[in-house]
């Protein structure tokens, strides 16, 4: 559990500042579950430059509660949670100072979004909150007010969590927690998982991922791991001390995230993962008469497949399916073994394209249309699908035919601005497996829309 925190102060000498405003959003890694926002009477004058910066003046705070009156609420909302703040050292110091004045030792674990951003967004021009969130297309209002800055920090933290493919944030928190056997609450951890699409992670006592997978129902799939009686499942059950998850909003994003994180983390119990996810492909060639032939063959590393499949049957079924769509010839594509003409030619049901029936250039133009539709080679597009929550969209970027990564968007200008788009996209390795995952998915299922990207 995290608490996203921002504090405004009076300014002044080090460790003599007073709190003028505080905003806390309790965040479970997926949604805000509690919040506390309040002006605070610091019982001292505010420095003039702070008044100009925040707009908070002494008159506004005369009737505001004093710190000791909100202290209990702060303790309760931050209990058993990690404080997340932009320049966390400052906010945490201010809180500890205020509590020390009350004779209370306030201790919490902290995460700093400045430090996290430097690790996960190494190319950012500035790490100040205002400039950083603007460069990422994150909306911010009431800048230099506690709640405005806290909400901007929350959106930044969500982005950093999605970019943290190695799960360093989660590990850094988990390793500092008390170790030991599963508590009753942890034994019931499945109940806390969502019945939604995403990727789940099963962690050992050190926070390391020992198993990960994708599912359209995370709760159901993890429950299956815990109720399976196989020897491997029992070992996983014994070693698992925590289950975390990331909602992806759609199955394609889950497939791509699973693929990327299996390669990066190589969990000990994901031994079934294949280096190549496909065995056959459709290959393009020219026959002796100049017609383009699309043939189903086993994967040949020396040739580039138009599209890939898990079996020869799947590849041949694809050729049959596009025959009617693009009026292609089974004889040319090797699906008919007839010595002269295929059966469709003999019974006059040929869709056009048999040798000597149609000019080469006309037939080949249709073949190229088919290739263009089912292959994204050299294309630069953004595949848009459902996001993790209402009003959000997931974007999967393809640049020059290569998968570049995925990200989540709330505003149209984030999508339309290529520079903001590429800063929000979490980079992932594009390879033949990601190409197979995306092309296979698009053949079978619909997405919300596909946008051509202007370079």
Automatic annotation (TrEMBL):
GO BP annotations, alphabetical order: DNA replication proofreading; nucleotide-excision repair
Molecular function (Gene Ontology), one example: 3'-5' exonuclease activity
Entry's Gene Ontology cellular component terms: cytosol
InterPro entries reported in the protein's UniProt record: DnaQ, GIY-YIG_endonuc, GIY-YIG_endonuc_sf, GIY-YIG_UvrC_Cho, Ribonucl_H, RNaseH-like_sf, RNaseH_sf
Domain of life: Bacteria
Short name of any one Pfam family annotated for the protein: GIY-YIG
Assembly, per entry: DNA polymerase III contains a core (composed of alpha, epsilon and theta chains) that associates with a tau subunit. This core dimerizes to form the POLIII' complex. PolIII' associates with the gamma complex (composed of gamma, delta, delta', psi and chi chains) and with the beta chain to form the complete DNA polymerase III complex.
Protein's name according to its UniProt entry: DNA polymerase-3 subunit epsilon
């Amino acid at each position: 559990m995290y608490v996203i925190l921002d504090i405004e102060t009076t300014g002044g000498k080090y460790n003599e500042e007073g709190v003028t405003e505080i905003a806390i959003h309790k965040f479970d890694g997926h949604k805000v579950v509690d919040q506390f926002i309040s002006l605070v009477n610091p019982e001292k004058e505010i420095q003039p430059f702070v008044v100009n910066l925040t707009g908070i003046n002494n008159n506004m705070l005369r009737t505001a509660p004093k710190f000791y009156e909100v202290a209990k609420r702060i303790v309760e909302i931050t209990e058993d949670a990690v404080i997340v703040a932009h320049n966390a050292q400052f906010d945490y110091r201010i809180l500890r100072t205020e509590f020390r004045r009350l004779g209370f030792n306030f201790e919490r674990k902290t995460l700093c979004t400045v430090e996290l951003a430097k690790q996960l967004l190494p190319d950012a021009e500035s790490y100040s909150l205002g400039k950083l969130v603007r460069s990422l297309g994150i909306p911010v209002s009431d800048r230099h007010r506690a709640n405005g800055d806290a909400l901007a920090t929350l959106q930044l933290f969500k982005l950093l969590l999605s970019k943290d493919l190695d799960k360093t944030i989660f590990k850094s928190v988990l390793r500092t927690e008390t170790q030991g056997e599963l508590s009753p609450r942890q034994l019931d951890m499945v109940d806390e998982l969502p019945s939604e699409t995403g990727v789940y992670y099963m962690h050992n006592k050190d926070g390391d991922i020992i198993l990960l997978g994708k599912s359209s129902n995370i709760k159901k799939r993890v429950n299956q791991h815990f109720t399976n009686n196989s020897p491997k499942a029992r070992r996983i059950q014994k070693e698992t001390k925590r289950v975390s998850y990331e909602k992806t909003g759609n199955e394609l994003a889950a497939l791509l995230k699973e693929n990327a994180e299996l390669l990066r983390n190589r969990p000990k119990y994901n031994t079934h993962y294949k280096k190549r996810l496909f065995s056959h492909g459709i290959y393009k060639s020219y026959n002796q008469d100049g017609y383009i032939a699309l043939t189903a063959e086993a994967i040949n590393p020396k040739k580039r497949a138009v599209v890939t499949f898990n079996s020869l049957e799947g590849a041949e079924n694809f050729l049959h399916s596009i025959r009617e769509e693009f009026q292609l010839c089974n004889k040319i594509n090797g699906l008919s073994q007839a010595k002269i003409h295929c059966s469709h030619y003999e019974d006059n049901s040929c869709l056009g394209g048999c040798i000597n029936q149609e000019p080469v250039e006309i037939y080949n133009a249709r073949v190229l249309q088919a290739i263009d539709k089912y292959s994204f080679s050299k294309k630069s597009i953004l595949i848009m699908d459902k996001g993790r929550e209402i009003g959000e969209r997931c974007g999967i970027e393809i640049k020059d035919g290569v998968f570049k990564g995925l990200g989540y968007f709330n505003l149209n200008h984030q999508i339309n601005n290529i520079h903001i788009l590429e800063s929000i996209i979490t980079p992932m390795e594009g390879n033949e497996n990601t190409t197979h995952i995306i092309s296979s998915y698009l053949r079978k299922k619909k997405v919300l829309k596909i946008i051509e990207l202007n370079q």
